[in-house]
């Protein structure tokens, strides 16, 4: 049954390692702000495309 014990020890080691890892943001303030702005720009572009598509569908149905 040594294999089961080895598996348990590996699981415990992995859980300790995962608990010790930092779970917060690794970006600096300026990097985080830049990323946030880039994501916002992408979402604005998607929203504009969706609005244009909806406007186009509305005009073809009438």
Automatic annotation (TrEMBL):
<feature type="compositionally biased region" description="Low complexity">
    <location>
        <begin position="40"/>
        <end position="50"/>
    </location>
</feature>
<dbReference type="InterPro" id="IPR007513">
    <property type="entry name" value="SERF-like_N"/>
</dbReference>
<protein>
    <recommendedName>
        <fullName>Small EDRK-rich factor-like N-terminal domain-containing protein</fullName>
    </recommendedName>
</protein>
<feature type="domain" description="Small EDRK-rich factor-like N-terminal">
    <location>
        <begin position="1"/>
        <end position="36"/>
    </location>
</feature>
<feature type="region of interest" description="Disordered">
    <location>
        <begin position="1"/>
        <end position="62"/>
    </location>
</feature>
<feature type="compositionally biased region" description="Basic and acidic residues">
    <location>
        <begin position="1"/>
        <end position="20"/>
    </location>
</feature>
<feature type="compositionally biased region" description="Basic and acidic residues">
    <location>
        <begin position="51"/>
        <end position="62"/>
    </location>
</feature>
<dbReference type="Pfam" id="PF04419">
    <property type="entry name" value="SERF-like_N"/>
</dbReference>
């Amino acid at each position: 049954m040594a294999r089961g014990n080895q598996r348990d020890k590996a699981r415990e080691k992995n859980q300790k390692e995962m608990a010790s890892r930092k779970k917060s943001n690794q970006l600096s303030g300026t990097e985080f702000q830049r990323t946030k702005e880039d994501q916002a720009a992408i979402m604005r572009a998607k929203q504009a495309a969706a609005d244009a598509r909806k406007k186009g569908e509305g005009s073809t149905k009438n």
